[in-house]
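Title: [Solved] MvdD-like pre-ATP grasp domain-containing protein 3D structure

Original question kept below for reference.
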Amino acid sequence: MYVDRDVVLLITHSGDYFTIDRVAEAVSKRGAQPFRLDTDKFPMTVQIEANFSNSGSNHKLEYSTRSLNTEQVQAVWMRRIWQPDLGKELAPQFQAACSSESLAVLDGFWDSLRGATWVDDLQRISVAENKLRQLRIASEVGLVIPRTIVTNNPQQTREFFEEVKGKMVAKLLRPLSYGMQASSFFMYTSAVKEEDLLDAETLRYCPVVFQEQIPKQLELRAVYVNGNLFVGALDASEYAASTQDWRRGTKEVITWQPYQLPDKLICCLDAFMTRFGLIFGAFDFIKTPSGEYVFLEINPTGEWGMLERDLEYPIADAIADALLSTSPKQNAFT
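Solution (posted by the thread starter after getting help):
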């Protein structure tokens, strides 16, 4: 039996807003059916059924008043995967096991969608999320990176602090929150002071990324979608005295301006995305007062809503085009 594959599955969570709505609208305008899946609602509200036999397999999903089977799904936008919200009624000793089992079922559901176009493929995202790998690839394709040390050795940390003459920042390898507004539990990129090194022995509990603090003229968020680039710039002089992370700046001083990257840098970004086989990525750069562009990181599911909102960039349209393209520019990663 022929099944019309016109559904675009939008994977997110119930606290997501703006970007998910814009992509859903853009998908609808192109004649496809957006289907929003809030992953935190599984298994309490979302139902998934998977049937297997020697003659084949079939996966069905029901959420709210809608249902689908995986044969209907043409494309998948990988926005966010969230931990299950199991409520307070389930005893604490069962929470971890039920959450683990639910995520395992979701993994199987994603596998059933392997014939769809993904922006982006989960394996490629996982590979690209490793910030140490990012730094290596960035340097190999010609991008400038900060001097960096990742260590759980207190003495190495003190020595690096001396090498960079006290101009050092600390950051995490993995994000602790997602979305246009950070959660209450979030570690921003922070300047390290000499008195902070008095607690360096605590590194034995968790290694930390330390980088040379780069002087800022501008901070840039460059959103890459299937060969298209949308760049926003922030004047760092408006907030750099109070924070090393623009996400901690007040709304009054965080004013995005459109920006055009030089062609040589764009070629490096193309090469970087090819190496990881990604269609989408949100790059962070610093432009120094001397005019040098320094790569900080890429988030393969990074935030872009503020650029579409403030600069009217058609990022949602570009994502919808990539989802519904017959041949998206997705390459094998190495």
